[in-house]
Amino acid sequence: MLRGSESLGVAATPERESTFIELGALVRLAVPIAIAQLGLVAMSLVDTAAIGRVSVDDLAGAGIGRSIGFGTAVVGIGLAGALDPLAAQAVGAGDPGRAWQAFVTTLRATLLLWPALMVAAFAVTLTLPAVGLDAAVISRVRLYIAGQAPGFAAKTPAIMLPQLAHAPDASSA
C-alpha cells in the first residue's frame, strides 16, 4: 500500500513528504473543529425551525437577539483566543504550570468581562425602536439575550479548553 505522495503518483521528495505529513496533521486537527461548527449551524437551524412555529415576533426576536448576543460575545471570544499563544509559549518552554496560570487568568478575565458584554447587548436593544422594530419584537430580543446569557458565559471557557489541551499536566503543576 502506498502512502503520502506515492499514492498520488507524485515523485517522493523530502519537501513533498513533509507537505503531505503537515497536510495530514492539519486535516486531523481541522475535521473535529469543522464537525463542531456544523453542529452549531445545525442547532441554529433547529432553533429557527422550532421558534418559527411559535410566532413571527418570536422568530424575529430570536434572530435579532442571536446577532446582538454573538456580536457582543465575540469580544469575550477574542479575549479567550489570547490564551493560545500564552499556553503555547509556556508549553514550549517546558513550563505547564505557567500555561495553567495563563488559563486561570484568561478565564477570570473573560468571566469578569461577561456581565459588561451582556449589559452592552441589552444597551444595543435600546436602539431598536429607532430602526422601527415593534415593541413585541424588542421584548423577544431581550428575552432571547437573557436566556442565552449563561451560554455566552460558558462559550469562552469552552473555547479556551482545547488551547490548554497541549499541557495535560498543567493543572497539577
Counted by DSSP, the helix tally is 5
Measure the end-to-end span.
44 Å
Q: Average the pLDDT over all residues and give the rounded result.
A: 83
Strand count, sense and barrel status of the largest sheet are: none
Radius of gyration, whole Å: 22 Å
Short key terms for the protein model shown above:
173 residues, mainly alpha, 2 domains, 5 helices
Description:
With 173 residues, this protein is mainly alpha-helical. The protein has two domains: 1-53; 55-172. It is built from five helices and no strands. It has helices at residues 14-52, 56-81, 83-92, 96-125, 135-164. The longest helix has 39 residues, at 14-52. It is flat.
SSE blueprint and pairings:
Blueprint: H1 14-52, H2 56-81, H3 83-92, H4 96-125, H5 135-164
Helix pairs in contact: 2-4, 2-5, 3-4, 4-5
Short description:
With 173 residues, the chain is mostly helical. It has 5 helices and no strands.
